[in-house]
Specification:
With 135 residues, the protein is mainly alpha-helical. It is built from six helices and no strands. The longest helix has 25 residues.
Length: 135
């Protein structure tokens, strides 16, 4: 399986796991996925992920906070998997800060590549909030 196929497979799997979530959660999640790629490009991976965690809060209960947390966890799952940029089970933000620039650039590139697939699947399978976020 190619790297692109692995990204696509994982990105779709994570969308399929959202099936039992509420419509509000799915709408919010899709919206946050649409925004994360541009946030990474503008602010860098570490800062964009820190914003996701901050928006989730320590114990996310509301759909918007849970959606932010799930998105962070999904990106973390991809970057910190066996064979990922960072070692399995790593604390993603700590890894971003503790590794050198070459790791950071690989992680950012990999996160953006995974997000491209994830965004496409979110747009295909999750409801739009009607906010005009589609390109």
């Amino acid at each position: 399986m190619t790297s692109e196929q692995e990204r696509a497979k994982n990105a779709l799997l994570e969308v399929e796991k959202l099936e039992s979530e509420t419509e509000v959660f799915k709408q919010r999640y899709r919206s946050y996925v649409d925004r994360l790629g541009p946030a990474i490009v503008m602010n860098g991976l570490g800062q964009a992920l820190a914003v996701e965690l901050a928006a989730a809060g320590p114990e996310p209960e509301k759909p918007d906070a849970r959606a932010h947390r799930r998105l962070y966890e999904n990106v973390k799952g991809w970057l910190c998997r066996d064979g990922g940029v960072y070692p399995s089970g790593s604390d993603l933000l700590r890894s971003v800060m503790d590794h050198d620039e070459s790791f950071y650039m690989r992680a950012q590139t990999e996160a953006l590549a995974w997000l491209e697939w994830h965004k496409k699947f979110c747009r295909a399978y999750l409801p739009d909030s009607g906010g005009g976020g589609d390109e």
